[in-house]
């Protein structure tokens, strides 16, 4: 089934299509970083391949998603990959696939993830519809995970049976957060605006292209999934795509004869084409049909999950930044492009942010520059007011910080010749990443 996958810049990207079979022979390193032994190819798409692998230290089975860096750059999908890493490293829920670690080479990025032995839920539904009780069981697991995501400001935006996996105990696991949105993408009107999702599962307000609430579109997709589990087919389906869109706009669907009155009523509330009157996740969890046999999973809201602005004190780097310093590989400049007017470099330091800023301020004043503090950082301007050097400091660990230096074309030689030699004593061991 085709996917709508416009990226944040408005450029369309091709869909990923799962293909079974194959081997890992084309991967240059079958023994990945001497940590994982790659095995059977589980699936592949335009930008990534997923392999079964074995952890050489524990013998545990894992899934490894291999992403082609060049295709990511050509498809303008760097932001999607960064977002997926950021989200998956922080989500900790029994019904969400766990990301163990991220590794990389010069050409590939590797997601090492929890292995879901049971495969896609889609494959199970394709063999025949589920009973109402079994449909309820998986819907409860799905909603529990979605409630957790929404409480952390994450909206999946591409929920469908193909993105729901089963482990060896037939427990549901949500995967593929590549099209997810987080609260920092919400525009001033309070809505998201990126066109994404799979047509048969997409909410009518996304098709309208007028902005949408991420939580409400996830609820709609969950409703379509529940319908599919119970019926064995889609509620809105037509060989003519525009005819299918018209059905979605109007919320026109019929439940099969075996559907109970309570489930019909419940589905009508979820598949309400008007987002303002559509049932919410919390209302779903209070509904009598849903609550039957439900065991709530308590999950605290992790405040460290949220994006932090650069002005907040000693902010910690997000997961994508942290992998630059992992034992697997140096990923500095992972998505950098040549020809930028602004050059930058990073180095790791064991010195306090205050001391580093003090040193850079003093050097700037020695050169007759105007100094302006900005959050946990400092900006240096030339006599004509032009920005020359900007330094931001992020907390890496309790003992280490990362100093990110950006310099304009006017400040390149000044930084290299005057500043850098006098700051070498701040660099922690071999952590210098160099220019990127």
UniProtKB/TrEMBL annotation:
<dbReference type="InterPro" id="IPR000719">
    <property type="entry name" value="Prot_kinase_dom"/>
</dbReference>
<dbReference type="InterPro" id="IPR004041">
    <property type="entry name" value="NAF_dom"/>
</dbReference>
<feature type="region of interest" description="Disordered">
    <location>
        <begin position="1"/>
        <end position="20"/>
    </location>
</feature>
<comment type="similarity">
    <text>Belongs to the protein kinase superfamily. CAMK Ser/Thr protein kinase family. SNF1 subfamily.</text>
</comment>
<keyword id="KW-0808">Transferase</keyword>
<dbReference type="InterPro" id="IPR017441">
    <property type="entry name" value="Protein_kinase_ATP_BS"/>
</dbReference>
<keyword id="KW-0418">Kinase</keyword>
<dbReference type="InterPro" id="IPR008271">
    <property type="entry name" value="Ser/Thr_kinase_AS"/>
</dbReference>
<dbReference type="Pfam" id="PF03822">
    <property type="entry name" value="NAF"/>
</dbReference>
<dbReference type="InterPro" id="IPR011009">
    <property type="entry name" value="Kinase-like_dom_sf"/>
</dbReference>
<feature type="domain" description="NAF">
    <location>
        <begin position="312"/>
        <end position="336"/>
    </location>
</feature>
<feature type="binding site">
    <location>
        <position position="74"/>
    </location>
    <ligand>
        <name>ATP</name>
    </ligand>
</feature>
<protein>
    <recommendedName>
        <fullName>non-specific serine/threonine protein kinase</fullName>
        <ecNumber>2.7.11.1</ecNumber>
    </recommendedName>
</protein>
<dbReference type="InterPro" id="IPR018451">
    <property type="entry name" value="NAF/FISL_domain"/>
</dbReference>
<keyword id="KW-0067">ATP-binding</keyword>
<keyword id="KW-0547">Nucleotide-binding</keyword>
<dbReference type="Pfam" id="PF00069">
    <property type="entry name" value="Pkinase"/>
</dbReference>
<feature type="domain" description="Protein kinase">
    <location>
        <begin position="36"/>
        <end position="290"/>
    </location>
</feature>
<keyword id="KW-0723">Serine/threonine-protein kinase</keyword>
């Amino acid at each position: 089934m085709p996917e709508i996958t416009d990226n944040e810049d408005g450029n369309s990207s091709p869909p990923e299509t799962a293909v079974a079979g194959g081997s890992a022979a084309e991967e240059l390193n079958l023994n990945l970083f001497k940590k994982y032994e790659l095995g059977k190819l589980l699936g592949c798409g335009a930008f990534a391949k997923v392999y079964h692998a074995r952890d050489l230290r524990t013998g545990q089975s894992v899934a490894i998603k291999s992403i082609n860096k060049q295709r990511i750059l050509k498809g303008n999908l760097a932001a999607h990959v960064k977002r997926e890493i950021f989200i998956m490293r922080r989500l900790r829920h029994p019904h969400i696939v766990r990301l163990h670690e991220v590794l990389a080479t010069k050409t590939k990025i590797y997601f090492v993830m929890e292995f879901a032995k049971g495969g896609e839920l889609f494959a199970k539904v394709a063999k025949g519809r589920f009973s109402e009780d079994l449909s309820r069981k998986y819907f409860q697991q799905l909603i529990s995970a979605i409630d957790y995501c929404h409480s952390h400001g994450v909206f999946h935006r591409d929920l469908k049976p193909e993105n729901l996996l089963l482990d060896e105990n037939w427990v549901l696991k949500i995967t593929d957060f590549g099209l997810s949105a987080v609260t920092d993408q919400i525009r001033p009107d309070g809505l998201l605006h990126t066109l994404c999702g799979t047509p048969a599962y997409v909410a009518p307000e996304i098709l309208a292209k007028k902005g949408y609430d991420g939580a409400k579109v996830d609820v709609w997709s969950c409703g379509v999934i529940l319908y599919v589990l119970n019926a064995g087919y889609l509620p809105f389906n037509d060989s003519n795509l525009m005819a299918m869109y018209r059905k979605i706009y109007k919320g026109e669907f019929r439940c099969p004869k075996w559907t109970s009155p309570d489930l019909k009523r419940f589905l009508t509330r979820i598949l309400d084409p008007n987002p303002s009157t559509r049932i919410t996740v919390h209302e779903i969890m209070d509904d009598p049909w849903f609550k039957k046999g439900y065991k709530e999973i308590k999950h605290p809201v992790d405040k460290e999950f949220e994006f932090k602005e650069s002005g907040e004190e000693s902010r910690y780097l997000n997961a994508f930044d942290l992998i630059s310093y992992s034992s697997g590989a140096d990923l500095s400049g992972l998505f950098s492009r040549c020809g930028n007017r602004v050059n930058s470099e990073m180095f790791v330091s064991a010195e306090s942010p205050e001391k580093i800023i003090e040193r850079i301020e003093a050097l700037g004043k020695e050169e007759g520059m105007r100094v302006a503090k900005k959050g946990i950082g400092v900006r240096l301007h030339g006599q004509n007011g032009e920005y020359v050097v900007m330094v931001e400091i992020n907390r890496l660990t309790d003992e280490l910080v990362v100093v990110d230096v950006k310099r304009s074309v006017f400040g390149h030689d000044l930084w290299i010749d005057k500043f850098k030699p006098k700051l070498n004593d701040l660099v922690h061991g071999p952590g210098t990443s160099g220019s990127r």
